Amino acid sequence: MADINFEAPEYYTNRELSWLDFNYRILGEARDKENKLFERLKFLSITASNLDEFYMVRVASLKDMVHAGYKKTDISGMTPQEQLTAINRRVHEFVGLQYSTYNRSLVPMLLQSGLNIISSFKDMNKEQEKFADAYFENEVYPVLTPMAVDSSRPFPLIRNKTLNIAALMKRKNSDGDELEFATVQVPSVLPRFVKLPDNDGKTCLILLEQIIQKNIDKLFLNYDVICSYPYRIMRNADFSIEEEESADLMKEIKKQLKKRQWGEVIRLETEEKIDKRLLKILKKELHIKEEDIFKINGPLDLTFLMKMYGIDGFSKYKDKKYIPQPVPGMNSEEDIFTQISKGDILLHHPYVTFDPVVDFIKQASRDENVLAIKQTLYRVSGNSPIIASLAEAAENGKQVTVLVELKARFDEENNIIWAQKLEKAGCHVIYGLLGLKTHSKITLVVRREEDGIKRYVHLGTGNYNDATAKLYTDMGMFTCNRAIGEDATAVFNMISGYSEPPSWNKLSLAPYWLRDKFLHLIRREIKYAKEGKEAFIVAKMNSLCDRKIIAALYEASAAGVKIDLIVRGICCLRTGIPGVSENITVRSIVGMFLEHSRIFYFHNNGNEEVYMGSADWMPRNLNKRVEILFPVMDEKLKEEVIHILDIQLADNVKAQVMDNEGKYSRLDRRGRKKVCAQEYFCNEAQQRAKEEEKIRNDRIFTPMENSESV
Amino acid sequence: MAITTFAAIDVGSYELQMKIYEISQKNKIVMIDHLRHVIELGKDTYKDGKVSFENIDELCGVLKKFTCTMEEYKVKSYVAYATSAIREAENADIILDRIRVSTGLEVKILSNSEQRFLCYKALAAQEDEFDEYIKDSTAIVDVGAGSIQISLFDKGALVTTQNIKLGSLRIRELLYNISNSRQHFDRLIEELVNNDIQTFKRMFLKDKTIKNIIAIGEYVVYFARKGVDNHLKTFMDRKQFMERFDSLNSKSPEQISDKLGITGEQASLLIPCAFVYKRFIQETDTQNIWIPGVDLCDGIVAEYAMMTKKLAFRHDFQEDIVGTARIIAKRYKANLEHTAILENNVINIFDAMKKYHGLGKRERLLLQISAILHDCGKYISMSSPAECSYNIIMSTEIIGLSHKEREMVANIVKYNTMDLPENRDDGMYLTVVKLVAMLRVANAMDRSHRQKFKDFKTKFSDGKLILTTTTSEDITLEKGLFESKTELFEEIYGIKPVLRQARMLK
């Protein structure tokens, strides 16, 4: 036993391949006939946008490593080149499955349901053609910039992620058969699909590139267009090295900076039937390798399906929109501070509404006893009511400190705008911490009361974003517990540049203390298991790929600790390895809401401990981010959180379980009651809200007006 | 409930900190916020003699941020003290002025003895443990960045206090450059520390043993840390201390910082600090160690609460100051009987003259201490005792007195017998003169050193202060020489002291 090396690469799965598995699971939802048709479109769209991001961030980063000659192996023992090769193979398969789903199931079913996506402009009827041509003349033509390539005009810069049309042309009235190349970007300012006049009582749509292709002659009047095909590229550009890479890699890359090929094309998507001559030109001009070309049978860039979900009608093919319910035990009569003072309050979004969080800040901004509001903001919705309240608080003379994380991926610009707005209002804005991303979600309200200063804290697993709070499952907690209040103050002092406090009461923070805290909690279970006592861990998170934590989990499993993991995305841990991970189960839930909460439950020899937080078990969360883990101490809330975990573990509809090969599959439901966790929580929240309402109504006195009944 | 929100600021040698407190009858003193910023002012001062401009800028910047936090909590009163790094800096005045101009904060420089005394107040605010501990022979050992302070308590009272200029930062700065390995470093610290501790033992401890140590100071708190979990272990016995010391000393500062979750800087200062404690414990046979984790800020607030009468503490600090003065007098073989009577007489006069001198409790204490120490100089020279007393007082720490107060005591003693100099505009001249006048009168009352005025009554009559004794002894000597010693008194108060002997019926 003692000589097992729990960190041996063969016990681990490569994180990129595990991520691809996750995307496969989403694709599975797009293929699942039990899902409503338009929901399936949404899932397919998500797989496409996920894949784009994966390329821009992960594949780009691996390419950098290869260019820098970096050979260090990952957690599973693969070199960057080996990873790229494996990814490439898997992605080709994946794209194949995406489009067979699109072509073979979704498009025919859409047609049945009354929506015709006309795949080629050649399939339009006369009326539709007329409409399309007019649309082209009036809307499209003015914003097109066709670009021909010849000896005097070099190959133009094709912008990252844009959809383009390449054409082969022949000069009119020329004798030779010399062909010229031209390209035109499909304008991103226009909607990707155009609604055509109905046909046969069916709603008809066509993609913008088809309309352009139909009219491409009008762009090159002196030429005959031989053929035209859409294409799309992904570049390794504009992105600095991913934060989670190790320091020695950064050094290596800095050294090799010159070798880094900025703007290198790392993926080319074209239509399957593309003309060979055209492809050859693209390949040469874009310097792309054969394996990085994806020939696609269908429309490029499936993200338009998300927009298509929004077209009017078809409501019977969409899930009914769920309305977040009021929080049990909370009311709108009392001020929120009084309510928190009665006991900690648990919020499980999106099943219950995010409004209390918004109200918390709003009320604090107007309450005359509030001295200060402090908050960390990571990704905030546009027009966020929280931002408005913070600004108002500053105008009302409260001390407002806001940490705005500018490093939040792809959100930089958006964040800067409202951060400046806050600063103008008089808030103290901190634009992130050097070398660290602030990922923690914490709000502190300092209030002066009869007995002195009292602190109210909201801690959460998700961002302060009222829009995503309707789509992501997250946990939040209000508390005025003194120990947590003190810690919260210390967190903001640290964020403001002061030294760490001499000690922490209840909160555990990354990057300095959190991994050790988790390791300590895991080892405590190991200790109990070795003493022959019951020992188990249930943990839910988005990703699991921290080597030290996984090794500790293996050690725990080997010692007899039962471990049930609910990991939505990447999971480098493998189950069922003899002597290593036989006591571990891993399941992933992919549903209509994005699973996002992080919950950690340790048996602790009967003195159960439940924690929630902002951190996944990933190196980047534990090393390079400010994260907070907080305990759920109130017994009733603890029970509620354990109940939430229990239901997730019982899910046999949306859950997929990892087998000993590392493959995920759905559970055999024969003879078992169907449990879909997300649905269960929706119903439960509605039920609880109804009961509350009933109790409230019951409090109305019933006057007995008939004297005989007295 | 009346709550006072108060801020205490400590401009330390290694760290700047501010604590915000709420003071109320119900909850006593509760800390509600604590801000710390590492800035090694001491490093500048101990090496170059002054604080660098960069650090002054940073200092002002952080203090400015402190004022924002004070505003946040609507703090009404604050006290800000600077300690040795600024005290010893050549450019101290400039620094304080820069702070005043850029932040509006008044920072006062604390003398070493005041600083230590504040820490005792913080300790004493933890009344139950403190009273229990100082019942036995106990040393408070405070290893700071710049110096070590050792104070001995016996049977509940302070006996002596000594300052050794050998703090963690100073040790590290001294040895950092000359040591070439870890073992070597250890040996050097040991040698350096041993010398001072043995001297202390020889001079002040003699054959006494120390049962308990109360360890205070900036770094020893980290020693109490068990690990990143941060449970502060505040009580340990000798064995636990030694085990802990060995386990830490076998690690590099990096490992220590990992293990305890502190910065490498803090870890590198913890080692010299722990060494000092270890040597002291070994040398004195200490059995118990208490690490209460109090600091200067806690002392500042305790003092503030006492001064403003918001709270009262059991421990009598005045008695500590007087007690230390008595021990100094004893060390210099003062005539204890004469001193006791003088002390008694001068206090009686002071109290009787209250209406006329308009001085307060603090001045009364200074007068009392002056009386106690008034002839300690005779130990050195019979011919110029005044000068010698002055010098002894100026170079002896009296815990609880500021440097300025000590200077006043030294002057009162000196001019008890010497002619007063011309008026000096130093803010204390008048007080000194008023007190000297009373001391001279009281001293003249026991000219023979035979305690003839052991019991006397005071009475004002006709512009005279009549001092009546019931003694049956002959007071001719006192009476005869009295006039020459009362001139100053008359000059200042316009009252003529007169000695009378009440006729007793035999």
Keywords:
heterodimer, A: 710 residues, polyphosphate kinase like, ten-stranded mixed sheet, 27 strands, 37% helix, globular, B: 506 residues, alpha/beta, Nucleotidyltransferase, domain 5, Hypothetical protein af1432, six-stranded mixed sheet, five-stranded mixed sheet, 21 helices, 52% helix
What does this protein look like?
The complex is a heterodimer of chains A (710) and B (506). Chain A contains 18 helices and 27 strands. By secondary structure, chain A is of the alpha/beta class. Chain A has three domains: 35-317, polyphosphate kinase like, CATH 3.30.1840.10; 336-505, Endonuclease Chain A (Endonuclease, Chain A), CATH 3.30.870; 510-695, Endonuclease Chain A (Endonuclease, Chain A, 2-Layer Sandwich), CATH 3.30.870. In chain A, strand 19 (536-541), helix 15 (547-559) and strand 20 form a beta-alpha-beta unit. In chain A, helix 1 packs parallel to helix 3 (80-113) and helix 10 (355-366) packs parallel to helix 11. Chain A is globular. Residues 241-245 and 257-261 of chain A have low confidence and may be disordered. Chain B has 506 residues and is of the alpha/beta class. In chain B, 52% of the residues lie in helices and 17% in strands. In chain B, strands 8-7-6-9-11-10 form a six-stranded mixed sheet, with helices on both faces. In chain B, strands 3-2-1-4-5 form a five-stranded mixed sheet, with helices on both faces. Chain B has a three-stranded mixed sheet with strand order 12-13-14. In chain B, strand 12 (456-461) and strand 13 form a beta hairpin. The longest helix of chain B is centred in the middle third of the chain and has 24 residues, at 182-205. The relative contact order of chain B is 0.09. The model of chain B has no long low-confidence stretch (mean pLDDT 83). The A-B interface holds A 371-372, 399, 428, 446, 448, 450-453, 489-490, 493, 496-504, 512-513, 516-517, 520 and B 1, 3, 5, 15, 22, 24, 26-27, 30, 32-38, 65, 68, 71-74, 221, 225, 228-232, 261, 263, 293.
